[in-house]
Each structure stands twice: as C-alpha cells, then as structure tokens.
Write a structure and sequence with these properties.
Structural class: mainly beta
Largest sheet: 12 strands, mixed
Oligomer: single chain
Number of strands: 32
Shape: globular
Strand content: 35-45%
Helix content: under 10%
Distance between the termini: 59 Å
Number of helices: 1
Length: 341
Amino acid sequence: MGRAWAVVVAVTLLAGQCWAGTIVVTSEADSGPGTLREAITHANGSSGADLITFHTDLTTRTIIPTTWLPPLIDSGTTVDGDLNDDGAPDILISGEGTASMNGLRIHGHPQLEGCTIRGLALIDFNDYAIKIYKSWNNVVEGCNFGVDRSGTNVRRNADADIKVAESSDNLIGGEGPLTRNVFAVAQEGILMQSSSRIKIWGNYFGIARDGTALASGGWNAVRGYTVRDCRIGGSRSGRRNVFGGLLSGISLYGENSKRNVISGNYFGLAPDGNTTMPIDGTCVQVSSGPHHNTIGGSTRATRNVFGAARVGVLLGERAQSATACEATISAPMPPGQANAH
C-alpha cells in the first residue's frame, strides 16, 4: 500500500544530533513515494545532514530493491533502522530481488564523510551488503549481516557483508552492545582494500547477538589487503570482537599492510570467554609481505584469547621478522589442536 513519505524540513534535534531534515520511509515498495529509494534521493539532493528513518509499520515487512539503490553522496546522512534504540535492527532489507547488487553504498563523492548506517538487517545480497568507497569518518553500527531481524535466521550475503575500499577513519561497530554488528559471514564479513585507520570494534562474527552460535559456515571474518593503521579490537572490553564457528578469523595481506593492531579479541570462544565455538582453520594470519603489525600487546587487556581453533596465529615467511606477537593467551583446546604456529 502506497503512503506519502514525511519530510521535516526544519532543523530537528534528535538524541543530541542536529538534522537539517528528517525523512520517514513509509513504504516497503521498491520505488515511488515513501520508499527508501526516494528517501535517499531526497537526502542526496538537500544540503546539510539528513536523517532517514522508518515508520513502525515496516518492522514487520521486508524492503526488497529490484535495482541498485542510489548511493549516499551527501555528507552527514544517517540511515537509522533501530526504531526503539535497543541496539538491534528493526528494518529488514533483502537483496533477493535481483541477481547481482550491492545493498547500501557510501560512495565516491568528493569530500564525502560522516555518514551513519544503523539498525538494519541486510540479507540475501549477491554482492556487498554495504560498500564504503573513497569516503571518510563513516559509522556502521547495530546491524545484522546475513541474519534477519530475529537475529537467528541465517540468510547470508554471497560476497562480503561490508567492503571498505580506498577509504579511511571509518568505524564498524563501537564500544558496547548498542553499537554491535552481527556477521553471519559468507566469503568475508569485512573486506578492506587500500584503506587506513579503520576501527573494527565490539562485533560478533559467526555468533548471534545473544551470544549463541549461528548456523555453521562462514569463510573469513575480516580480510585486509594493503591496509594501514587499522585497529581490530582494543584494550577496552567494549571493543572486543568475538569470532566463532567460522573457517578463519582475521587475515592481512600485502606489502603495504603495516602498523595494524589486533588486540583484546576472542577467537574460537563465545562472548563469555569459556564456551568453545571452534574456528576450523586459522584465527589470525599475516602473510605475503605485511610488516610492523602487532598481534596482542604488553598488558592483560590487550591480549587476544584463543579457544578452539586449528591454528592460533600463522605468520607467513615474509611477515615473521617484522610482526610483533605479544602476550596472547590460550583457553583449553580440543586434543590434537594447536594454538600458534
């Protein structure tokens, strides 16, 4: 049923943020009045930071685009599908309507920065669910990737859930449950290419929002090619990423992958730090030339904890001499498995 979509053109104050306009999506249709497509088009064409939010009727429906949605090209735009501010998505967007398509894109406009995507469940995309390209200071938080609104029904995206390319200073997740993203993971959860200062904090990979295992599968949780100064996890507990039920955790490649820090994370464990959720392959792999990267740290808070996994840390021949692997600790592992090689 078609509905008119609402645009508040006056300045609106919401949760401490000043918006130039608020656009409410009221229809799950692919195009026309009240749709997400029209909302993005309107935000792109208006000056100032706009908020795109959704009518509560859409919390029981699915938005299924049949062609590519327009990219976000106006700095400061926020797409917010967490309607009750509980840190979990209320809006479901499915890529089942087309054979090959990205979901949402923050994309390639000069000086584009400061966009936020929050509270969406993105499933069934045959390409990337979210793509960030040549853009800075963006945030993706409180989303489910390859998992529906319920947080348990797995419908994976075929390629990477998030691709970040030629971008810097983006935050995926945050500090605590209200900003946590959940990744079912197909080929990659997060794919980074030629990017710098990406922060990946507080996310679950292969693990549901309630801390239980998702349906098995999943290839690489995080993969980085030619990435610099990125932070995956951290010394604060809220920044801890948890990896379980996957083939592999984090992989870094390329001679210009340098000064990245992987710390304070759990691998092959549930969020409680005790229940095993096996990694079938390698938890952390650094190979093909990365240098001056750090795995772990000199304090207890920066240690990575390895539980059930075939290999904890694997340093390729060209990565060993300049990679610091400090103060990692291992939980009990099944017989015949090893922590680090």
